[in-house]
Amino acid sequence: MKNVLVGILCLFLCVQSSLALTIAQEKRIGREFFKEVKKQVPLISDPALNAYYNEIGQSLVRHLSKQDYVYHFFLIDQPTLNAFSGPGGYIFMYRGLFLIFDTEDELAAVTAHEIGHVVNRHIAKRLERNKKLSLAALAGILAGTILGGGSPALATGLMTTSVATTMAMELKYSRQDEEQADRTGLQLLMKSGYNAEAMVDAFKKLARFSLEGGGAIPAYLKTHPDLDVRIVYIASALKNMGVRPTKRDQTRFQLMQARMRALYTDREKAKGYFQYLKKKNNKNPVSFYGLGLCLMQDKDWQEAIANFKEALLLHDSFLFKRELGICYAELGQYKKAIYYLTKVPLDAQVSLYLGLAYQHLGNLKGAIATWQAALKHYDPDITLDTSTYTRLCYYLGQAYAVNKQQDWAHYYIGLYFKLKGEMPQAQYHFKKAMQLTHDPKLKELISKKRQ
């Protein structure tokens, strides 16, 4: 009887381990994977850059026939020529790769390829073989394998080297996986209105950079093998489909590259680059914009304003108005700040400065409304610009104190400390807010935040 029970138990375990990884399990692994990525690499927190890359990504996934995941797109502040996808719809692009492209179409092409891996569940299918491990352990090994270039030593501190090595080998994409991701990506590009030939252009560019680097193979090529073969069959497929190249205005893409260069590479070198562009063509708004961003970091607000105004004369972009508004707010010219900041899409940073401008002009109600609206977009799981949201909470607390609404003042100061990770101070202010308030809405908010 005992042997029968053991046999049944073994059969049950074998069946369990062979079951496919569910979408729900993959999403959980994806969330854990993202936590590990945040620990290991510097993710870019700039709201304008993140909004732009997410816009591209969402324009692609919008054309999927079925969406099993909520897709998230992130930029990594490292010069590596790489991009990768994680389970559950998390897509990552390195700064180095972002800056070598010539068109937004090329950026979209590589992003579409990574979406292809997610859609076809290539990682999930490989993780199924390791379901005996915890989801957190799977996520840790996966993050270490991808970010460590496949090194088992970097894979995880939770598993033995042999387990990490075995899993690292199993996680490698096959040639069939790459071809399937390419074909999925091509379909997404065409449906989204991008130039499908950009996938060939992007892969050729990666191959060229490898040769120019003295034969050193970029990380992207190590994790995405047989690039020369793929270039040939993608080009052949496009020819057979009769795809005609399309053109789009690349100004916004070039401005975003300028923003990336100004904010996330060596500032003096970036200045030199933009000054060179200006001498080469003084009718190019990109050079004025990039130089203006560098000058903002130097707190040379007047010179920055001069460059943004020159850019605005050449091209009507909300990006120039955004920075003009921030510069004027820094100079204490609040009416001008409001003039520009009310003409651009609101993100946390814009809302912060707009609220401060309202506050300094005596419009406390407008300041509070602006800051509260911005806080509604805070998501603790994916928001990267936490410092701006922390400041929003602090200013809201101060504004409510001035408005003699001490219950709401303590609540927002409590949020301020919670976002800073200082929970004893946060709990103190939440408790004070609960003691002072008679507002049922605030009581409900406090109860949620104290959990």
Mean pLDDT: 86
- Strands side by side in the biggest sheet: 1-3-2
Principal-axis shape equals: globular
Beta-strand content: under 5%
Structural class determined from secondary elements: mainly alpha
Q: Domains counted in the coordinates: how many?
A: 3
Which oligomeric state applies?
A: single chain
Order of helices and strands: HHHEEEHHHHHHHHHHHHHHHHHHHHHH
Tally the helices.
Answer: 25
Our measurement of the CA-to-CA distance between the termini, rounded to an integer number of angstroms, reads 49 Å
For the secondary structure, the number of strands is 3
Which bin fits the share of residues in helices? 55-70%
Question: Ranges with pLDDT <50 over ≥5 residues?
Answer: 1-19, 150-164, 214-223
Task: State the major sheet.
Answer: 3 strands, mixed
Cα gyration radius (Å): 25 Å
Secondary structure: elements and pairs:
Layout: H1 2-18, H2 23-40, H3 47-61, E1 72-76, E2 83-86, E3 90-94, H4 95-100, H5 104-119, H6 122-127, H7 135-147, H8 152-155, H9 161-171, H10 175-191, H11 198-212, H12 219-223, H13 227-241, H14 251-264, H15 267-280, H16 285-297, H17 301-314, H18 318-330, H19 334-341, H20 348-360, H21 364-375, H22 386-402, H23 406-419, H24 423-436, H25 440-449
Parallel strand pairs: 1-3
Antiparallel strand pairs: 2-3
